[in-house]
Every structure is written in structure tokens, then in C-alpha cells.
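Quick one, T. Sequence first:
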Amino acid sequence: MCSVDTELRDTASATDPAHCTDGKMELHARIEIARPAAEVFEYISNFERNPEWQSGMQAARFTSIGPLRVGSTYEQTARFLGREIRSTFEVTALMPGQSVSIATIESTFPIQVTRSVESAGESRCVVTAHIRGEPLPWYLAPLGPLIRRLGQRSVTSDYEGLKAALES
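C-alpha cells:
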């Protein structure tokens, strides 16, 4: 049986003293997918496919010429909490077939994302994601717990959507 394991951690909380100085929000997801790791990595590292499995994603397109490499860029348009979010991302790290890290270089909601794929046997793999967002502006800080819960719900739903898209 496959499941999505997710963890939400407010790095500004007193329960996580190692990360309490930066106030950043972290979301984590882990899911097992019944597909070969190489196929899954190819799919999740083609950011133009994000709208196929990410619920709030409206559009994504590469703004750099392939192949995928550190420094590649893409733009995306998404909706979260009723707001349109336009972002430009840059690939900051790449281990072909294993992991890709991206960070916003222009956005109203700055984030860093690492997606990793690890083989879990023949035609199976585990996908993990680590999403790190910047601290909320002071005027949104009181809504932090709600925004984190909604963000985690969105991440969980997205990775369940990834599994569904790849296993169908």
C-alpha cells in the first residue's frame, strides 16, 4: 500500500531550536510511486508538466533553452488562497536522475524546493519534497499557523496528484 507521509514544521517554533532563528516555513512530503525512478525523475524535473499534477498551478514554461541544468529558468503562474502568484524559478542544484533544487528569483512568495527520487525496487520509487518558504511579512504573521496548514494540505494533495498521474 502506498501513502503520502507529510510533515509540517514551523522553524520559528520553540520546539525546533536548531532552526528557530530564521522563521522560515518548511513543508515536507514523501510518497511511494509504482513507476521506475528514472521515469518519475524525468517527469518531475520537467517543470512545464507541473500544472498536470499541482492543483493550484495554472501554467509553467521554460524561459531558458534546454537541456535542464543548473541555471535553467522557468516561469509559472499559480493560485493560492485566492491570489495569483507569478514566479520565476532557477535551477540551483541538479543530480541527474536523483534530485533537482529550484529557488524563486522573482516572486511575491519566495520559496526553495528540492525534489528527490530514489529507487525502491523494480519499477518502484520514493519521491521526497522539501519546500522552504520565506518568513511571512509582519502583517500576515498572525495567520502563520493557518497558512502553514493550508500549504501542507496543498503539498499533500499535489503529491497524491503526482502519484495518480504517474500510476494511471
